[in-house]
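Lay summary

Proteins are chains of building blocks that fold into shapes. Our project writes down both the chain and a compact code for its shape. Here are two examples, one after the other.
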Amino acid sequence: MAEHTSSSITIEATPAEVMAVIADFGRYSEWTGEVKQAEVLEKDEQGRASKVRLVLDAGAIKDDHTLNYSWPSAGVVEWSLDKSQMLRQLDGSYSLEPEAGGKHTKVTYTLTVDVKIPMLGMIKRKAEKVIIDRALDGLKTRVESGAAA
């Protein structure tokens, strides 16, 4: 089993408010930093994104890739790599847990990345941690600022 990196943050909003921002791929470039463009290619029977093309610029890693998304429950979204120029694996998830009687949400982001070029595992884990921390900070700022409304 591949190693993964995981981190959590608490956001002062309901799980539904947080998930609404996560599911709004068209606005990812406004808060994620590394995602410069996102385009929903396919939707599932409930109208949620099931295949998304993302243009990523994370410094040393620039990529145009497609991810497959699944929504196993109201508080979980998972994704896996469909195709990529630079990546061999990009699997992850957001898991949302209500806190403070549902007024706050604990968001856990788990990510596994593998690149096609040789890279030390320690460097990959550090890159995963940077991606996760930036995404969680951006998500928190986006949701709590009310900009998503």
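And here is the second example, written the same way.
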Amino acid sequence: MTAAGRERREVVRMQAAGLFEQGIKPPEVAQRLRVSRKSAYQWYQLWRDGGVRALASRGPGGSRCRLSPRCLEKLVVYLEQGPAAHGWVEDQVWTAARVATLIGRKFHVSYSVSGATRLMHRLGFSPQVPARRVAERDERAVAVWKEATWTEVKEPGRPAEGTSASRTRQASPAGRPKHAPGAGAAAPRS
């Protein structure tokens, strides 16, 4: 959830608390605030047990970041140095897998690829996908191969002759082999 979404959710919870204080029941609170009844009842329970403070936000959900603020600052510096400075010379892109490896090497903390992606977004970076193209690719040779060799080795497609299939009309039992199921179900038409 975005920061704006969290703020709106907190405002709505505080409005709900005000309505509960006025004696308005959860179904009507849900209708007035355009939230689910389930949310209204959960908020009502929290409000009843702990007052308005119980409905206050506790900050963003999810697990805590496993890197300290100081380590996060160092990570930003490492990312700004580029992949080549840390041993990836093939291309100059930070993939999420590389960032997860870098975090493991520098901070001895294990991050999954998806966790590294979320962390990169939090830090203002976006993971990149490296282009899988050979550095010494000969475009003329590729074009010649496509024109000459590919047409020879390519399997032919379906024949151009007419074929049909129909889901709306069942096949006639007369056309089935005698030992097939349903072969004698109907007499052949003349």
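What can we say about the second shape? DSSP finds eight helices and no strands in the chain.
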